[in-house]
Amino acid sequence: MDTASNNTQAAILDRLQEIFRAEIDDDGLTIGMDTRQADLKAWDSLAHIRLVSGIESEFDFQFNLAEIEEITSVRQFVEAIREHLQ
Fold first, then answer.
1. How confident is the prediction along the chain (86 residues), in pLDDT tens digits per residue?
2. What is the CA radius of gyration of the chain?
3. What is the C-alpha to C-alpha distance for residues 28 and 56, in angstroms, rounded to an integer?
4. Phi, psi (5° rounding) for residue 32?
5. Is the whole-model pTM more than 0.85?
6. d(CA 33, CA 76)
């Protein structure tokens, strides 16, 4: 798969799915673009930091502090990842 196809919304969401499952420790968890932090009881402040760390490691970039504080949904994670990968 080339880099452009790895950066599609669907490809990013697939990779995020695995990160969420690992960091929230729920192999059956299914996320979608409309999944919000408020929707997942396990997505607390500590899980948020683990998610950020896992995403940074997987996609090889660093979020800035403002992004980390503002992101509260899968959609926002996908959009931020796409911006960093451009």
1. 445 567 799 999 999 999 999 999 999 999 999 999 999 999 999 999 999 999 999 999 999 999 999 999 999 999 999 999 98
2. 12
3. 23
4. -140, 175
5. yes
6. 9
